[in-house]
Structure formats: structure tokens, C-alpha cells
Design brief:
The chain is about 55% helix and about 0% strand. By secondary structure, the chain is mostly helical. The chain is globular and about 35 Å long. About 5% of the residues are buried.
């Protein structure tokens, strides 16, 4: 897919692993016809759109596991198409540790 707009990852193509693994914590600029939203607002809006799409798919009977796998495929395909295999491979190297550390767990354990 061709993108006319610059992406936050473009500057990281030749960048270090640390830069790649922390790209979500840095603001990204996405030019639009109206005033751009701050990065945290863009992420909240994106999550809202995704939650609505998931709710509609679940309502239509699509299994959550199928949705998750399709979403991961679509996300990685977008990243690879935009930034290339090497940059995305470096980014995903750190995902296992983040999953094990509970970064993606919705339920908090009680101590």
C-alpha cells in the first residue's frame, strides 16, 4: 500500500533497536486537513475505532481469536509495507518480554 503521508517510523528506518522498541512512546505527526490531534488523542481515537469494529464483528459472530489473528496480520502487514521487514523484525523482538511482563494483560493481579 502506498502512503503519501510521512509516518513516525520513517525516521527510524536506519535507527537503533532502542528507538524501534520505544516508537509508541514518542509523538508522531500525521498531517491532515484540520489541526492535527496530539499523539495520545490519535491513539485513543484509533483504539475507539478498533473497539467499534471488534464489537460489530463479534455481534456478527466472528470469533475473538480469529479477530485477534487477523488484526495482528493486518497490523504487521501495514508496518512491513511502510517500514520494511528488518525494522519491524527489530521491533517485534521485544514483544515476548513485554507480554511476559503483563503489558498487554487487561486483568490486574491482586496481591
Amino acid at each position: 500500500m502506498l502512503h503519501a503521508k510521512p509516518r513516525a517510523f520513517d525516521a527510524l528506518r536506519p535507527g537503533s533497536r532502542a528507538q524501534l522498541l520505544s516508537f509508541m512512546s514518542h509523538p508522531a505527526s500525521f498531517p491532515t486537513a484540520r489541526d492535527p490531534m496530539p499523539d495520545h488523542e490519535q491513539k485513543q481515537a484509533a483504539l475507539s475505532y478498533l473497539n467499534e469494529a471488534w464489537a460489530e464483528a463479534r455481534h456478527d459472530g466472528v470469533d475473538g481469536d480469529c479477530l485477534a489473528q487477523a488484526s495482528l496480520f493486518a497490523a504487521f502487514a501495514e508496518l512491513v509495507g511502510t517500514y520494511g521487514e528488518d525494522a519491524v523484525a527489530k521491533f517485534v523482538e521485544g514483544l515476548a518480554a513485554r507480554v511476559r511482563n503483563g503489558e498487554f494483560s487487561l486483568a490486574l493481579s491482586k496481591q
